[in-house]
Amino acid sequence: MRIPAHSVCTAIRDDIVAGVYERGSRLTEELLARRYGVSRVPVREALRTLEAEGFVVTRRHAGACVAEPTEQEAADLLEMRVLLEPLGAARAAQRRTEAHLKVLRGLVRLGQERARRGNSDDLRSLGGWFHETLAQASGSPALTSMLTQLRHKIAWMYAVEASAGPVESWAEHGAIVDAVARGDSERARAVTALHTERATAAHRLRFGSAGERAERVRNSQHDVNTASLRH
């Protein structure tokens, strides 16, 4: 059975974002194939995709390596998100479906409930699903893809400090959905811009120690060769 390259790509990207592979470290096809339980063919395809996304670079005499973004490149990503997230929300107000609204409203209910109870363990993942669904509701595959890549890269380069106001944050999510549901693109754009700018202030560049990276390696064991990929 041939494991899809996109599944291998997702597994490698997740490990890069989690810090399993140190920036600048080599990514050899043989070792990656062994780690993920696949042949070298999907690994090679995955590395090409990750290079196009900016997670991997190819160096002379070294081959594929984890990229080493500069602080300016990292700052540019946050600025790009501040510009693109509001655009996605404005488009969503014009193009969303009832299915999108149902998911968005459900996520807001869950997020607001957990925020009120002070249960912050899964608020970050709920927030990620919210923004992913909002991007999909824009009806623009290109914009959705760009926003998804931005979120992956920002998660890789930045640590996000615990929100001082999760209740307020999820109230903003609710306001975004209300504007999208009404088809008010300008309101959706404005509320999302304020929300994104406020969230940006909580981002801090990552600087993990070698010991922390080693711990992540021990705790992260992906195997993409699972039954779920056989369907």
From TrEMBL:
The keyword Transcription regulation applies. Gene3D superfamilies: GntR ligand-binding domain-like, Winged helix-like DNA-binding domain superfamily/Winged helix DNA-binding domain. Residues 210-231 are annotated as: Disordered. SUPFAM superfamilies: GntR ligand-binding domain-like, Winged helix' DNA-binding domain. SMART domains: FCD (SM00895), HTH_GNTR (SM00345). Residues 2-69 form the HTH gntR-type domain. Residues 212-221 have a biased composition (Basic and acidic residues). Residues 222-231 have a biased composition (Polar residues). Keywords: DNA-binding, Transcription, Transcription regulation. It comes from the Bacteria. This is GntR family transcriptional regulator. It comes from Streptomyces violaceus (Streptomyces venezuelae).
